[in-house]
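Form P-L/3: holo structure prediction, ligand zinc ion.
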Amino acid sequence: MTWRSRLGSLFRRKPAAARSFTACPQCGDKMIFVEKYTMGGDDLRTYRCDRCQSEHTLDFGPALWTYMSDTDKP
Ligand SMILES: [Zn+2]
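OUTPUT (holo model):
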């Protein structure tokens, strides 16, 4: 693989931070992503709001791996 093709694949990559922040459910300000964890197949993400000085855990629904496992079912 040449350096040119490696560079091309880098630029073709989608913007990683399409949803890098989420609005605070309390004040509407943007929150900083803290951590992500899956529990019981749900995609839960913790964000910290500087304005509220508190962290909010948001439920983003079923985690990606549950979708992938579903495709294996007949
Ligand atoms: Zn807030």
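COMMENT: The radius of gyration is 17 Å.
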